[in-house]
Amino acid sequence: MAVSSSVTGTWRWILIIEGLFTVFVGILCYFILPNNIRSCKFLTPAEKDFAEMRMQADMPVTDTATTHGVNWGEVKRGMLSISCWLSAMAYFGILAGLYSFGLFVRTLLLIHCLPQTDTPSSSPPSSKPSAATPPTKSNSGP
Description:
Layout: H1 5-32, H2 45-58, H3 64-67, H4 72-79, H5 82-113
């Protein structure tokens, strides 16, 4: 199926406009978003102190034995956990269905919605005329 150049050009412009908008928003966010709590212009000093106190309270308590390496006991526990495997299988089942539908729905629509004129019929041709075809007149006699 050939695609006309006007359709291709339209898609190019849509992608260019979306890309320019994304770049513009990214540059705008670089200048508008604050780097940390202390550089926020829209917070009062009391709110900044409260936010830093909450950030410190939310930090996890670290154990020096587990911060410098992998705790293989936890890895083993995670690999042998039935809930982890069931969640992974459920996630795979959901995504396999979603992606197969999303990727092949166009093909299915093309197969089932287009007229099938080139396919031979599976039933043998009959000598009796069908109800849809009018009878033909024969020119065999005067």
